[in-house]
Specification:
The structure is a single chain. Helices cover 47% and strands 19% of the residues. The protein is of the alpha+beta class. It has a three-stranded antiparallel β-sheet with strand order 3-2-5. Strands 6-9-10 form a three-stranded antiparallel β-sheet. The chain has a two-stranded antiparallel ribbon with strand order 1-4. Strand 7 (94-97) and strand 8 (103-106) form a beta hairpin. Helix 3 (130-150) packs across helix 5.
Length: 284
């Protein structure tokens, strides 16, 4: 075998190996592909639509979702003793502190998608796939936004009347941070009740019980006053009715006779003494 033959065989083997190492990458529906040339010009400026693409060893394609996706950072489920049901499940709950340093935790959900035109910009900045981005930069940004907003509130406000405002303000911060890179955060919401320390929860429950008792007492006072006012009004009405009736009788004595006639059932006394008159018989 001469030298040229050996070179030809080597070239053929090289080409076979190159072709064998090449593959096709699919961009699935609901996503766009960001193509990266690892040996040349880096990130391609235009995202690739759904389809199959030839990807030699130097080329990689990363999928980013352009339809809405959701994710929840949550604490693992626990049994009645408080132990995780599945120890292998990571604890992803969000934690933050109030203005007094008391810690609260909660499960937080997000709805998001990537702007198709800006998908290459997002990859260019973070250089990671979507799962890594959600677990890393996105989670960190949300946790920081919650911590910043919660630091100006008391624990009772976070647990009660301000919890909606807290998550809304955190959403605005996260949207402003990622919108220029093409990450559109559609919604951020609590996926569980906010969890506070047991002693704080006991204080909150006691305060709620006291407020309810005070409201009940106020209601009882109001009812008693209303009942008393009703009785006074009734008595005043009865007195006024008696006054009017008495005045009528004084000015018109025949009213008594008319009332007696209304009540008379037609009977007469069986024995009439001297000087007595039969009722209504002598009336003119």
């Amino acid at each position: 075998m001469n030298k040229f033959t050996m070179i030809g065989i080597a070239v053929v083997l090289f080409l076979v190996l190159m072709v064998g190492s090449c593959s096709f990458t699919r961009v699935s529906p609901g996503n766009v592909g960001v193509q990266v040339n690892n040996l040349g010009d880096g990130v391609q400026a235009t995202a690739k639509p759904v389809g199959y693409y030839f990807t030699p060893p130097s080329i990689s394609i990363h999928e980013y979702p352009i339809s809405t996706r959701t994710y929840t950072w949550a604490a693992p489920q626990r049994d009645k003793n408080g132990d995780p049901i599945d120890p292998s499940v990571a604890n992803e709950e969000m934690s933050f502190q109030d203005k007094n340093g008391l810690t609260a935790t909660a499960d937080v959900s997000i709805a998001y998608h990537v702007d198709q035109a800006k998908a290459p910009i997002l990859f260019q900045k973070y250089r990671m796939d979507m799962d890594a981005f959600v677990a890393g930069p996105l989670k960190t940004a949300i946790r920081n936004a919650l911590a910043e907003e919660a630091s100006g509130l008391g624990i009772e406000e976070i647990y009660g009347p301000k919890k909606g405002e807290l998550i809304s303000k955190a959403l605005v911060k996260v949207q402003k941070q990622f919108a220029p890179q093409g990450m559109d955060v559609e919604q951020l919401y609590w996926a569980s009740s906010i969890r506070v320390p047991n002693q704080v929860m006991a204080q909150i429950n006691q305060k709620i019980a006291n407020e309810q008792a005070a409201l009940a007492a106020q209601a009882n006072v109001a009812k008693a006053k209303a009942d008393a006012d009703a009785k006074v009004a009734e008595a005043v009405g009865e007195a006024e009715a008696m006054r009017v009736r008495g005045e009528a009788i004084r000015t018109n004595p025949e009213i008594l006779q008319q009332e007696a006639i209304k009540k008379w059932q037609g009977g007469v006394p069986q024995v009439i003494t001297n000087g007595a008159s039969t009722p209504f018989i002598n009336l003119k």
